[in-house]
Design goal:
- With 412 residues, the protein is of the alpha+beta class.
- Among the domains are: 65 residues, MutS, DNA mismatch repair protein, domain I; 133 residues, Dna Ligase, domain 1, CATH 3.30.1490.100.
- Helix content is 40%, strand content 18%.
- The strands form 4 sheets. A 5-stranded mixed beta sheet has the order 5-6-1-7-8. A 4-stranded antiparallel beta sheet has the order 9-13-11-12.
- A hairpin with an 8-residue loop joins strand 2 and strand 3.
- Helix 12 packs across helix 13.
- It starts with 8 loop residues before the first strand and ends in a 32-residue tail after the last helix.
- The C terminus is likely disordered.
- It binds a DNA duplex (18 and 18 nucleotides) through strand 3, helix 3, helix 9, helix 11 and strand 9.
Length: 412
DNA sequence: TCTGGGGTCCTAGGACCC
DNA sequence: TCTGGGGTCCTAGGACCC
């Protein structure tokens, strides 16, 4: 007998989301292999692709050059993130009609808490079918729903029945369900962990379940050991249980060709500083830890980080810290493939004005105010050309920026 | 085939303090 | 003077996810 008080979680996952939106907006793309990401001839990977493209062996995270050779007649289109956010918002509104307990975890995924709705909507499987129908009717998109008593198992359930799927794991059957999966199906077991498990002669979920907790902790550390021990038994390790808020903001650029030109690298660093600081302000956050990242031609990646005694107050300050850090990780000669910049340890900035008054340096305070004014202007008129520093204005020698490199408006 | 960009969380070693 | 142990913060790197 199923208790009406049993917890019920839906994991809702929009199918091939970016590619589906492109097919929706461009009817001529329907039933054709659509590949969203970098364009052929450029560095980059596939962000998403339609199921038609998958039948050619294309998948997300694959280098675009490879996708192009597997599917030369595919339709390659760039990422239009702001459009996907818009459609995502519509879908979330449909979800909200079913429960106030919507926890969005990415642009194309959400957990829904449907506990205690049996009397209102009937059995969870019926509710999930109605939800799929509502999403299709209102947006034209298909969504796969996994239903279980916990978030972790609901997530595995949706992954088990894509696309346009509906899979219910009845309460009490979590362990049996997980036993039927491959080790690599377990969320949180990636390529490296899989290889290490196999090296230890652990090839299946059943074998993992026979492995002692102490052994797993010894080989993988306490945290991952406990994680593996739990998930193979269908026990939720506590994913997404806490209220999440962002702890870092970063931005990075991979150059079309590796470069060692100091001026170009400095200029890129300044653009990144502008972008990161803009987002920090836009989200009304403050932070004091700066991290830079560089990647060499051979893909070796290094980082350097410094925590300041005070919160960052301006683009110029972030930029000059970033340059100091860059000098610690780059000899100024080797060609770089990528450069990145981030601020971490960020917290909500409750009171801007009180904060600003703490700055003893009047110029810093002035800068801060000018930058905040720019943020407010861009927020008010997002379609107007961005106001920016003279040295960041487009260089006639350089190709134009791809659409989605600029600061974004967050859907809230 | 030559590998994006945005995040999260964990580990391990060293500094520092009690 | 020498010593132990714990807690916390910082830094660098790595695994994983969408």
């Amino acid at each position: 007998m199923i208790d009406t008080a049993d917890p019920v979680v839906f994991h809702c996952d929009l199918d091939a989301f970016y590619a589906s939106v492109e097919q929706l907006d461009n009817p001529q793309y329907r039933d054709r292999p659509v590949i969203v990401g970098a364009l052929p001839g450029h560095r980059g990977v596939v962000s998403a692709c339609s199921y038609e493209a998958r039948s050619y062996g294309v998948h997300s995270a694959m280098p675009v050059s490879q996708a192009h050779s597997r599917c030369p007649h595919g339709i390659f289109v760039p990422v239009r993130m702001s459009r996907y956010r818009e459609v995502s918002q519509q879908v979330m509104e449909v979800f909200a009609d079913f429960t106030p307990g919507v926890q969005q975890i990415s642009v194309d995924e959400a957990f829904l808490d449907l506990s205690g709705t049996r009397r209102l909507f009937g059995p969870p499987g019926k509710t999930a079918a109605a939800l799929k129908q509502a999403v299709r009717h209102r947006t034209g998109l298909t969504v796969t729903v996994g239903v279980a008593a916990t978030r972790y198992v609901a997530k595995l359930a949706s992954a088990h029945d894509k696309p346009d799927g509906l899979y219910v794991v009845d309460p009490g059957h979590e362990a049996d369900f997980v036993l039927g999966l491959e080790l690599s199906d377990l969320w949180g077991v990636g390529r490296k962990t899989l290889t290490r498990l196999q090296t230890l002669r652990i090839d299946t979920v059943a074998a993992l379940r026979e492995t002692r907790l102490e052994f797993l902790r010894g080989h993988f550390g306490e945290s991952t050991g406990d994680y593996l021990y739990n998930v193979c038994r269908g026990i939720d390790p506590g994913i997404y249980s806490a209220e999440s808020r962002s702890h870092s903001i970063s931005s990075e650029t991979t150059f079309e060709v590796d470069i060692s030109d100091r001026q170009l690298i400095d200029r890129t660093l300044l653009e990144l500083a502008e972008h990161v600081m803009f987002r920090l302000r836009e989200e009304r956050c403050r932070g004091a830890t700066v991290t830079i990242k560089v990647r060499d031609s051979d893909f070796a990646t290094r980082s350097a980080q410094r925590s300041l005694k005070h919160d960052l107050s301006s683009v110029d300050e972030l930029y000059s810290e970033a340059r100091l850090l860059l000098d610690r990780r780059w000899n100024g000669r080797d060609a770089l493939r990528l450069i990145g910049l981030g601020v971490s340890g960020i917290e909500p900035d409750q009171d801007h004005d009180a904060q600003a008054n703490l700055f003893s340096d009047r110029t810093e305070e002035k800068r801060r105010k000018v930058e905040q004014a720019l943020v407010d202007l861009r927020r008010k008129r997002p379609d107007s050309p961005p106001v920016t520093r003279a040295r960041l204005l487009p260089d006639p020698e350089r190709p134009p920026e791809p659409e989605d490199r600029g600061p974004r408006n967050r859907a809230t």
